[in-house]
């Protein structure tokens, strides 16, 4: 009898989630269709589509499913990002290049935290935008936000970070290749510059291969190493912002999605996963993130995001210029 009751409760739970989950999935399909046929960043489309429907879901039966998608599906997508990274790719960079990237990422994040105070924002906002700029754009913003404790402005700040870094990443994809050619960088240097500075993976690939196949390969490897830095940075965020918990051991455990990220990275590195499975899991990760960001958009109005102000955009632009300056400087000093 108790089994039947539990089954009924699970069915009722799934049924209550379906309207919101399906709405987010439909928006993800719409964003992907527009991006595939007309170009542009899929995540940004999903976010804007979601925000455009925000006023329609107030008080609707879709709210619980949207909440589930924006949190649980997001964490699944971030965990699956680990299949993109293998230790063999990281070793291709060499000690000098990896050290440069680590230093550039750390300096950018610290600058974000310090500059946030200068522009009138709290350190959480600076860490969020700095991490998104330094590591892997929208995916990093979502992962870092998931590791942070809840706060009244958390979702609004996350949405702003996603919009800002995605927009700047798209601009960088257009501007950085001709800049690299104008500065007479070699294909390898161009790739290192592209992969070490542009925020989102898709834009890195687009910009790198628009220069040459060699530049594209170099850019992809450099970018994947920055994505790998999501693990220690998110662990750091979890430690700094851990919430009060009577179980001290539990308070120090990393989030499950981060453990999943590490596990999938290990599976990729050991060769357990076939190329076909890696491709499918990477695609599943992409769909989870698109669907989750659509759900986050559904929860937040555009008016709330715009209330953050132009100073926040200036902050993200400055962070972008900092990491670009550091990588260009390293190319001329070291490479």
Sum up the structure in keywords.
335 residues, mainly alpha, 17 helices, globular
Query: What is the overall pLDDT average?
Result: 80
Order of helices and strands: HHHHHHHHHHHHHHHHH
Helix content: over 70%
Assign an overall shape: globular
**Sheet/helix structural class:** mainly alpha
Give the N-terminus to C-terminus distance in angstroms. 70 Å
Beta-strand residue fraction: under 5%
Task: Please report the total strand number as a whole number.
Answer: 0
The number of domains is: 1
Q: Tell me the major beta sheet.
A: none
Subcellular location: Cell membrane
Family: Belongs to the UPF0324 family.
InterPro entries: UPF0324_pro (IPR018383)
Pfam families: Cons_hypoth698 (PF03601)
Summarize the structure.
The protein has helices at residues 2-38, 42-52, 63-80, 87-91, 95-118, 123-134, 138-147, 154-182, 187-197, 201-211, 213-228, 230-240, 248-252, 256-270, 275-299, 302-306, 310-333. It is an all-alpha fold and 335 residues long.
């Amino acid at each position: 009898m108790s089994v039947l009751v539990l089954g009924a409760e699970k069915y009722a739970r799934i049924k209550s989630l379906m309207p919101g989950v399906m709405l987010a999935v439909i928006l993800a399909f719409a964003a992907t269709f527009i991006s595939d046929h007309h170009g542009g960043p899929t995540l940004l489309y999903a976010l804007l589509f979601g925000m455009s429907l925000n006023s329609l879901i107030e008080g609707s039966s879709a709210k619980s499913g949207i909440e589930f998608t924006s949190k649980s599906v997001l964490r699944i997508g971030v965990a699956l990002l680990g299949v993109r990274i293998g230790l063999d790719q990281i070793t291709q960079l060499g000690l000098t290049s990896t050290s440069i990237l680590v230093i550039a990422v750390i300096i950018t994040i610290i600058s974000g935290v310090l500059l946030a105070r200068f522009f009138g924002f709290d350190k959480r906002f600076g860490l969020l935008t700095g991490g998104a700029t330094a590591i892997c754009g929208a995916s990093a913003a979502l992962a870092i936000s998931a590791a942070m404790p809840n706060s009244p402005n958390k979702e609004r700040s996350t949405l702003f970070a996603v919009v800002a870094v995605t927009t700047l990443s798209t601009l960088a994809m257009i501007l950085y290749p001709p800049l690299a050619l104008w500065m007479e960088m070699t294909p390898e240097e161009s790739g290192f510059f592209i992969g070490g500075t542009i925020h989102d993976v898709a834009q890195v690939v687009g910009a790198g291969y628009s220069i040459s196949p060699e530049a594209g390969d170099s850019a992809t490897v450099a970018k994947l190493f920055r994505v790998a830095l999501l693990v220690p940075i998110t662990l750091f965020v979890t430690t700094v912002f851990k919430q009060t918990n009577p179980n001290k051991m539990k308070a120090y455990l990393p989030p499950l999605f981060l453990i999943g990220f590490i596990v999938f990275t290990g599976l990729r590195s050991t060769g357990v996963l076939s190329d076909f499975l890696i491709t499918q899991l990477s695609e599943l990760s992409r769909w989870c993130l698109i669907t989750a960001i659509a759900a986050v958009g559904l929860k937040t109005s555009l008016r709330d995001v715009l209330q953050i102000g132009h100073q926040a955009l200036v902050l993200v632009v400055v962070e972008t210029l900092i990491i670009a300056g550091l990588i260009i400087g390293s190319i001329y000093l070291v490479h």
